[in-house]
Design goal:
mainly alpha; 5 helices; about 0% strand; structural constituent of myelin sheath; MARVEL-CKLF_proteins; transmembrane helix; CKLF8 protein
């Protein structure tokens, strides 16, 4: 029998979309001009201040400051990660992830754990504990409350965004 020499090729829409979307990297310059973007930058700058003020002391001798360090560094790194995601508009390339829910959970947990860490930080600062590190710990406590308020603001904006998505 004679064989047919035709070859049929098919292309999936997934690979076509993947190659088209990965060829250019989007950059959202306007995000930093929004209130959530400004709050995020403030969280990064002041969060860095919180953990560097504690890291410059003998915090490891006191478990309470270890908790504050964990929360401050953990959410500092994650906030930088989310800032990169928002600035590069990566969330538009991964539509399978419910970004509004992820943002709400992230900001809500950051607010709650930072509030606990700020209270622990403030209640652990005494001159009797270590007068040499008193000023650094007191300053870190103040900035921890400021960062907490920033996360509270972003939690509010995340909730508004999440609610508008769920009502549609």
């Amino acid at each position: 029998r004679p064989r047919s020499h035709t070859v049929t090729t098919t292309s999936s829409s997934f690979t076509a979309n993947l190659s088209a979307s990965s060829s250019t990297l989007a950059y959202d310059r306007e995000f930093l001009r929004t209130l959530p973007g400004l709050l995020m930058v403030t969280e990064i700058v002041l969060g860095l201040l919180v953990w560097t003020l504690i890291a410059g002391t003998e915090y490891f001798l006191y478990p309470a400051f270890g908790w504050v360090m964990f929360v401050a560094v953990f959410y500092w790194v994650l906030t930088i990660f989310f800032l990169i995601i928002y600035m590069t508009m990566t969330y538009t390339r991964i539509p399978q992830v419910p970004w509004t829910t992820v943002g709400l959970c992230f900001n809500g947990s950051a607010f709650l754990l930072y509030l606990i860490a700020a209270i622990v930080d403030a209640s652990s600062v005494t001159k009797e504990l270590d007068s040499h590190n008193y000023n650094s710990w007191a300053a870190s406590s103040f900035f921890a409350f400021v960062v907490t308020s920033c996360y509270a603001g972003n939690t509010y904006f995340s909730f508004i965004s999440w609610r508008s998505r769920t009502l549609q």
